[in-house]
Design goal:
It is a single chain. The chain is built from five helices and eight strands. It is an alpha/beta fold and 185 residues long. It has a single domain, classed as Vaccinia Virus protein VP39 (Rossmann fold, 3-Layer(aba) Sandwich), CATH 3.40.50.150. It has an eight-stranded mixed β-sheet with strand order 1-7-8-6-5-2-3-4, with helices on both faces. The longest helix has 14 residues. Bound molecules: S-adenosylmethionine. The site of S-adenosylmethionine (SAM) has 15 residues, from helix 2.
């Protein structure tokens, strides 16, 4: 299920960063005071830089088919800030077997890799295996769109088993994981 709310309606303060999606991402990341942030899909590392800005002490983890350094070695890449220190896992998320150190150990997982329906479903499953109790999953490109290759919204509306929030005026959606597993003490 996907509902649309403002960050303020979720009790999260907007970060003091100009722009639109970036302050929302910064606020969501800061809202869990993370020690470990992971992202599925890094490309040139723009969102990695945002995470570093949001939480400078946080360990950053990137999972992608190729590293941000390799992406940045390609000609004509867009201007991006210097890459922050991070741990890179070269993997195809469709076949990735999660290393034990990534299991339920990340406070934030940013889902921004394969945007097909099956890809988002798979990456969301992986994200929830990575998130620690009390953490947060964040999806990019989650607003309704006519782009046929972007199925994030359709997945969240029709198949996601929990409630995700689409932040009004952005393409960012998120879902908090309870601090205590449901049914637990
Ligand atoms: C939209 S870009 C990520 C942009 C980045 N998060 C940012 O905001 O700067 C998508 C990235 O996902 C990666 N990707 C796509 N499918 C993937 C898969 N099955 N496994 C791992 N990475 C994948 C691509 O290589 C690409 O770097």
């Amino acid at each position: 299920m996907l509902v649309e709310k403002t960050l303020e309606a979720c009790g999260i303060e907007r970060a003091d960063v100009p722009g639109r999606e970036i302050p929302v991402l910064v606020s969501l990341i800061r809202s869990v005071n993370p020690s470990r942030y992971a992202e599925l899909g890094t490309r040139f590392g723009a969102s990695l830089c945002v995470a570093h800005r949001a939480a400078p002490e946080c360990v950053l983890i990137s999972i992608d088919l190729q590293s941000a350094r390799e992406w940045r070695a390609l000609p004509n890449h867009p201007p991006v800030p210097p890459l922050p220190p991070h741990v890179f896992y070269r993997a195809d998320t469709r076949h990735m077997i999660l290393p034990p150190e990534l299991r339920h150990s990340c406070n934030v997982v940013f889902v921004d890799a394969d945007h097909t329906f099956d890809g988002v479903a798979n990456d969301t499953r992986l994200a929830f295996e990575m998130i620690a109790p009390g953490g947060i999953a964040i999806w990019h490109d989650a607003a309704p769109t006519d782009a046929p290759e972007i199925d994030v919204n359709r997945y969240l509306v029709t198949a996601f088993p929990f409630e995700a929030v689409l932040v009004a005026g952005t393409s960012i959606a998120f879902c908090r994981v309870p601090s205590v597993p449901e049914g637990g003490g």
